[in-house]
Design a protein that fits this description.
This protein has 351 residues and is mainly beta. Helix content is 4%, strand content 40%. Strands 13, 14, 15, 16 and 17 form a 5-stranded antiparallel sheet that branches. It has a 4-stranded antiparallel sheet with strand order 1-2-3-4, with no helix packed on it. Strands 5-6-7-8 form a 4-stranded antiparallel sheet, with no helix packed on it. A hairpin with a 7-residue loop joins strand 16 and strand 17. The protein starts with 29 loop residues before the first strand and ends with a strand.
């Protein structure tokens, strides 16, 4: 099938992005991926919002059509609370929402960023105004968690993604079980990251809560491909058996959704690349690297080393130059923009 004959499974809203930091009723740096559910005949989002310290919290937004006229809470709905939950020290991220009909409550699985790394926390709510926090339910490093909306064989079931620090053995989707929503065990890999040059090689993770269909539990997951310009996240689909979700009955070979529009290709760094002319404007970023770094937890009695990572502004990749020179069309999945990274030499400290 040619690219012109291919029909995308999902269509992007013409209103995208539907929410940005400018829409928030309070000061914030960025808005990231949100948990989503239907609540009182409306679409409800639980936004991950990053403040100017670089730490995140979760804020409720509601819309009648899920696209426009968003009503956003004027303060965080779930804020980090390190006094009562030490695992919240560096913020909250990546919520997923499941309605648990058997107890009449919504379960929110989210990441608490602890000193030892990200871990899975859980909260329950009936109204998205008050929240019953269960605390940390899975240890670091773990994230990308969501509950199935009902018990299976008498137990609550959760999908999640633990991973070693260097992802040496790959990061895969796991399943765990609980009788009380707090203590989880019998962890098992159910969906492995592929190997080699696949779009979902070495590192994958759950996107949304499992959705019941007549063919089984539908899940979407992201695959992470490492390139010289950084990571590319794309989405795939899988079906799990209705009675035994440890069984994967179907899995997409191709990704079904990937970054294409400017609002996902550009982030905090910005992007001035003009692919039509394979040029860029050197009008963003800093012309020289001069900064002062403070480390509040510095221990003068401990050996340590420090380094800085530098990110170059986006520039045309060689494929953009060749496309322009030879006047050829290339598939949408071909990378046309690159963004180099560099690391400074380390500074060593010895007491």
């Amino acid at each position: 099938m040619s690219n012109s004959e291919h029909r995308e499974l999902f269509s992007r809203s013409e209103n995208n992005p539907i929410i940005t930091y400018k829409d928030l009723p309070y000061r914030a740096n960025s808005v990231f991926n949100a948990g989503v559910t239907e609540f009182e005949n409306e679409t409800l989002l639980l936004l991950r919002v990053e403040d100017y310290r670089g730490q995140s919290h979760l804020t409720v937004a509601k819309s009648k059509d899920g696209i426009s006229d968003w009503r956003i809470e004027d303060k965080p709905s779930i804020a980090p609370d390190p006094s009562n939950f030490p695992e919240d020290k560096w913020g909250l991220e990546d919520p997923r929402i499941s309605y648990l009909e058997e107890i009449g409550k919504y379960a929110i699985a989210f990441v608490s960023y602890s000193e030892n790394g990200p871990l899975v926390s859980l909260a329950l709510t009936k109204d998205f105004k008050s929240f019953e926090r269960k605390g940390a339910v899975l240890p670091p490093n773990d994230k990308d968690a969501a509950l199935f909306p009902k018990k299976i064989n008498g137990e609550w079931v959760m999908l999640h993604r633990p991973y070693p620090g260097d992802v040496a053995d790959g990061a895969h989707v796991h399943i765990s079980y609980s009788s009380d929503l707090v203590n989880w065990d019998r962890r098992k890999i159910i969906l492995r990251a592929r190997e080699g040059g696949w779009w979902d090689a070495r590192k994958i993770g759950l996107n949304t809560q499992p959705l019941p269909t007549e063919h089984g539990w539908l899940i979407s997951y992201h695959g992470v491909r490492q390139t010289c310009a950084g990571c590319i996240y794309r989405l795939g689909l899988a079906l799990l058996d209705t009675e035994n979700p440890e069984i994967v009955t179907h899995r997409s070979e191709e990704w079904v959704f990937g970054p294409k529009e400017s609002y996902v290709l550009q982030g905090d760094v910005g992007n001035t690349v003009d692919l039509a002319t394979a040029t860029w404007a050197n009008t963003i970023g800093d012309p020289e690297l001069i900064t002062v770094c403070e480390y509040p937890e510095f221990d003068a009695e401990s050996r340590s080393f420090y380094y800085a990572r530098v990110i170059e502004i986006p520039t045309p990749r060689w494929t953009a130059y060749d496309t322009l020179k030879f006047g050829v069309e290339v598939p949408e999945e071909v990378e046309m923009i690159t963004q180099e990274r560099a690391y400074t030499s380390p500074s060593w400290y010895t007491p």
